[in-house]
Design brief:
globular, single chain, 6-stranded parallel β-sheet, TIM Barrel, alpha/beta, binds zinc ion
Length: about 280
């Protein structure tokens, strides 16, 4: 550990051992797909913390929690652990998840839901105990929204507008609408604008396999700036990468290159997330 401090936060990373396509993205992005590799990339960009969103492909709830908890410990608290559950597995599975989250040795810093990858949307009644748990434990709920990285995902479950109803019903729970709902970025921005308790993250907006990659980055930067302006409050926008889908250098570069004042960009790159997660001003790297 050096004496350098990192004030930035990446609110959306997947340094998991349970990944279907992570290695393919890592190879394309020329990155080392291990927690240590991620930490080195974070160090190079002043990122003190990353939020490790619990893998959906772990063999069991307990395996997923063991993965995020081990990485949290090995990273000395820099990679923050979260939980996940698929409500279509039934009420007993949801109850089991809440119990495991409560008893987990390493305190969870959030919950991640994967609508679209699993056939449910956020208004599903089976999720009510999850929102209640998040309210009691004062942790944000990350919600996958928009395009799925796999063709067998179902897009009708991923429309940002669906989160509006949940945000209204659960006013004391804070939600992170992932990927600015891409491609429905304007719809996502409206849900964030309207609801004080909804934030959005900039993760997963770049596809390293896309044709004309440099032009795609420019196009996305323009769309992201429009979304930030539509949100109308830079404090609701959080930098995320979706590592290893994006490298840290590319994901930070997307935000760094926005035509916005520097202080606004630093809020997106860290200040807003530190506030949301109750983190100190900086972490030793
Ligand atoms: Zn992700």
């Amino acid at each position: 550990m050096s004496t350098e401090l990192g004030a930035r936060v990446d609110v959306h990373v997947h340094p998991t051992r349970y990944s279907r396509h992570g290695a393919t993205f890592a190879e394309k992005n020329r990155i080392e797909f291990t927690p240590a590799g991620l930490l080195r990339e974070m160090d190079a960009h002043g990122i003190g913390w990353g939020v490790f969103l619990c893998p959906r492909l772990a063999p069991s709830l307990a395996d997923g929690l063991a993965d995020v908890s081990a990485v949290a410990r090995e990273s000395r608290g820099r990679l923050l652990p979260t939980g996940t559950v698929d409500p279509t597995q039934g009420e007993a599975e949801v109850a089991r998840a809440l119990d495991l989250w409560t008893r987990n040795g390493t305190r969870l810093r959030g919950i991640k839901l994967y609508p679209g990858y699993h056939p449910f949307d956020v208004t599903d009644a089976r999720l009510e105990p999850v929102y209640h748990w998040a309210e009691q434990h004062r942790v944000p709920v990350w919600v996958h929204q928009g395009d799925t990285s796999e063709p067998d995902g179902l897009l009708r479950f991923t429309r940002p507008i669906l989160l509006d109803e949940v945000a209204v019903r659960w006013r004391s729970v804070r939600f992170v609408l992932c990927h600015v709902g891409n491609p429905w970025m304007e719809e996502a921005a409206e849900v964030v604008f309207k609801n004080e308790n909804v934030y959005t993250d900039t993760s997963g907006l770049l596809n390293p396999f896309a044709e004309h990659y440099a032009a795609q980055v420019q196009r996305m930067r323009t769309r992201l700036r429009h979304a930030v302006l539509a949100v109308g409050d830079v404090r609701k926008v959080l930098y995320g990468s979706d590592w290893p889908i994006s490298s840290i250098v590319d994901a930070v570069g997307l935000v760094d290159g926005l035509d916005l004042p520097r202080p606004d960009k630093e809020l997106i790159l860290g200040g807003n997330a530190r506030e949301l997660l109750g983190l100190p001003d900086a972490a030793p790297m």
